[in-house]
Specification:
The protein is α/β, with parallel strands linked by helices. Helices cover 42% and strands 18% of the residues. It has eleven helices and eight strands.
Length: 248
């Protein structure tokens, strides 16, 4: 079972990238589970026809110990298994602790043993890398980490912080940073800026995703590009990313 964590600043297109990657991997014949680790709980909606699924935390709050896998794992586009950790009401409680509780519940219910996915992808908010948000990289959940960034200053700043967090745990045999995924925002000199960042953090630009209006059009329909138009140029961009990750 391959376990991957994809980090990035909020609003950078991390969930868009992750859901298109999951869809592409499913089209390549892999059984994929995508776990959203963001309090907004919107990681998987483009795999679920634009619908928000119940979060692990919400179901736990509602049903207590009487939670079944069918309450928290949902089948989306092309059989992709979708899970949203969820988070507390804004201003009440800690989102990081919410992720920890959700992960523990998935373990308790033996989600991986039951569904046996080939690839598990954690989609993790990277604005802060506190205890809960660092769970995928420090507790052995994920082996490989990719960071989605653009050439925008705050996005690159977050990417640098995430890289530092990953390196903190590398020596303990935990996850390692495989590279940056440049999700272009058409910032001036963007590729050079991100290449420079990659050199500074001793990594590389693993894949380049150009800006394309088809991505937004697809999202407005509650779909990934892969589902909306699998023969499009952008679908091929995500398929190439999927193939590169599989062959790593």
């Amino acid at each position: 079972m391959r376990k991957i964590a994809i980090y990035g600043k909020g609003g950078i297109g991390k969930s868009t990238t992750t859901s298109n990657l999951s869809a592409a991997l499913s089209n390549l014949g892999y059984k994929v589970m995508q776990i959203g680790c963001d309090p907004k709980a919107d990681s998987t909606k483009n795999l679920m026809n634009g619908k928000f699924i119940p979060t692990v935390l919400d179901v736990m709050n509602e049903k207590g110990d009487d939670v079944n896998l069918s309450d928290i794992v949902f089948e989306g586009y092309n059989g992709v298994l979708c899970v949203e950790a969820g988070g507390p009401t804004p201003g009440v409680g800690c989102a990081g602790r919410g992720i920890i509780a959700a992960f523990e519940k998935l373990e308790e219910l033996e989600a991986f043993e039951t569904f046996k996915p080939d690839i598990v992808i954690y989609d993790v908010l990277g604005d802060v890398v506190c205890g809960g948000f660092s769970m995928p990289i420090r507790n052995g959940y994920a082996k490989d980490v990719y960071i989605v960034t653009s050439g925008e200053m705050m996005s690159m700043y977050a990417a640098s912080n995430i890289s530092t967090a990953v390196n903190q745990f590398k020596n303990r045999g935990y996850a390692s940073l495989k590279g940056l995924i440049l999700n272009a925002k058409n910032v001036e000199d963007e590729q050079n800026l991100v290449n420079k960042l990659a050199n500074e953090i001793e990594s590389e630009v693993f894949h380049y995703i150009p800006r394309d209006k088809l991505v937004q059009i697809s999202e407005n329909d509650g779909k990934t590009v892969i589902e909306k138009d699998e023969n499009s140029y952008m679908a091929n961009v995500y398929l190439e990313l999927a193939k590169k990750i599989v062959n790593e």
